[in-house]
């Protein structure tokens, strides 16, 4: 194998580089979201939905689940671990559900729903692009 071919296989493509940065930014957003839910749990601010003991039980359940899922998912996303996106998908779908489908019991947050939905679509689009890119590279490296 020539040195140029070897170098070409070891350097990440533009798509891989963009995907890595997208996932890292997503990890920072998930970490910030996790901190937000932890602030709700420990009750720093006064108010009905800002203290765990004053929250209705649906809020208690959602806040505890998201306070645990978001930081762990952020860690997995940052490390590019295979379980990171799985946990993030669960947390993002949970947020989409509570802030849209079950907004009667929680609250309606169209920006959170839209952001999570857009990130899911972008993530899936990146994975499809990376799949086709790797398949094209594999076909190019096969001897004829």
TrEMBL record:
Membrane as a keyword of this entry, yes or no, is yes
| Annotated keywords | Membrane, Transmembrane, Transmembrane helix
- One Pfam family from the record: DUF6163
Where are the bilayer-spanning segments?
21-39, 59-79, 86-102, 114-132
InterPro entries documented for this protein = DUF6163
Designated name of the protein? DUF2069 domain-containing protein
The protein's organism comes out as Brucella cytisi
């Amino acid at each position: 194998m020539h040195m140029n071919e070897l170098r070409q296989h070891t350097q990440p493509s533009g798509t891989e580089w963009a995907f890595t940065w997208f996932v890292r930014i997503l990890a920072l957003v998930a970490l910030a979201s996790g901190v937000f839910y932890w602030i709700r749990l420990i009750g720093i601010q006064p108010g009905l939905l800002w203290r765990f003991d004053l929250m209705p039980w649906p809020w208690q359940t959602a806040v505890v689940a998201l306070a645990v899922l978001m930081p762990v998912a952020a860690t997995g996303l940052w490390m590019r671990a295979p379980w990171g996106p799985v946990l993030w998908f669960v947390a993002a779908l949970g947020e989409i559900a509570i802030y849209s489908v079950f907004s009667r019991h929680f609250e309606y947050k169209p920006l959170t729903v839209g952001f999570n939905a857009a990130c899911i679509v972008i993530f899936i689009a990146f994975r499809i692009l990376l799949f086709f890119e790797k398949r094209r590279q594999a076909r190019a490296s096969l001897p004829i």
